Amino acid sequence: MIAFKNGILSDKKTVLLWLACLVMLPAFAQQKKNTVLDGIIVKLDNQIILRSELEINYAQTLASGQATNIPDLKCEILRSLVMNKLMLARAEADSVVVPDEQVKGELDRRMAYFVAQIGSEQKLEEYYGKTIKQLKDELAKQVRDQLVMQKMQDNITGRISVTPNEVAKYYSKIPKDSLPYFSTEVEVGQIVKIGKPSRKNRDEARARLEALKKRIEAGEDFATLARQYSEDPGSAAEGGTLGFFKKKELVPEYEAAALKLEPGKLSHIVESQFGFHLIQLIERRGEEFNTRHILIKPAASEIDLAETARELAKLRAGIVKDSISFAKAAKDNSDDRETKNNGGLFANPKDGSSYIPLDKINPAVFFIIDTMTVGQISQPMPYRTDDGKEAQRIIYLKSKTPPHQANLKDDYQKISAAALAEKRNKALDDWFEKNRGSVFMEVNPDFVNCNLLQMPN
């Protein structure tokens, strides 16, 4: 049964499934600090579940505070792990795979999260006594398995949708005394314009990279200089190495220059949307190629940012005069990829809707909208993007919903998401029921009472 909990959609099965497969820093740290009596407790064909895997997920679930009222919680988690392993076993049988570049991208994203949590790459390496590359190598199989499970789950539930009648029917089944009370929620949008560096600053960035190229041609090591000077946070620690990519997976300017090179040779200075690159081809392998690069990003000056602010002010004036909607202006002009295709609106990370509890809004945004009225758009203001680029942005307060008990009119998105989750869980139940007999399973005697071939409630 899916229920609302503390104003947030809570789907017990989905929460457990996600907790069972998500690699997060706390669990990673726990693996380092805790010594758990390990061993295989469940085997499904070629897939295994270790006792340590169960214990880490159990501790993580308790720490989250989201599932402490579930009877036999450890069995519930183990059943979710069994479902994960069943998906992996069926994926192997059905030849379901994910591309290497997708695994690499997810590894880079998670490592960036770990680094942000602990403070720096150096601190992360010191904490675990391993290099970033070693940590990525250890996580690679877990990340690949998670992406395969996600693909399997998408294959099972991805095309499922709900109609308005189904949403209304779902809502009617919720006891009135179980409807949650929502705190104040807001819809907030932004349009971001990154400052365009002047010709002078671009020339200076190019000159810095030309100087590094001469040092490499004189005999200095490319990877060493990449670690020291490259401004690409995803590859600098790896000596600039990007790994193998296929054609059309990198920006066109970079790819065109890289494919002209022989192994070990250097490119000319290449400009892309990210800045200036010096590229070295490491290896070709069929249709794939592996390169390293040094990236230098030209910075926008105060004069450049002032011009960006003027452009954004003109755009704001057009929105205020109703000559263009905020959503279209964001789609056509914003440099923020996460919001531009969502009408410029921030998304609630819990359920993907545009309604965000006021106390969960980013503090910097909160202090801007705190004095705004609904429908108001701020003047352009300085902003630094997540990747460190200087920019300007305007903030739009689209709506502000007062505290209230859940109802179809004000909370249709949330109720629709809950109805959809229930329908998708039913599809997962049916899939599990259909496929549970397709694998051979051995269970440690300590866990036979968990009835592992039954779906979690």
Automatic annotation (TrEMBL):
The keyword Signal applies. Coiled coil: none annotated. Residues 1-29 form the signal peptide. The lineage of its organism: Bacteria, Pseudomonadati, Bacteroidota, Cytophagia, Cytophagales. PROSITE patterns: PPIC_PPIASE_1, PPIC_PPIASE_2. Pfam families: Rotamase (PF00639). InterPro entries: OMP_Chaperone_SurA (IPR050280), PPIase_dom_sf (IPR046357), PPIase_PpiC (IPR000297), PPIase_PpiC_CS (IPR023058), Trigger_fact/SurA_dom_sf (IPR027304). GO terms for molecular function: peptidyl-prolyl cis-trans isomerase activity. It comes from Adhaeribacter terreus. Residues 183-283, 286-388 form the PpiC domain. Keywords: Isomerase, Rotamase, Signal. Its EC number is 5.2.1.8. SUPFAM superfamilies: FKBP-like, Triger factor/SurA peptide-binding domain-like. The keyword Cytoplasm does not apply. This is Peptidylprolyl isomerase.
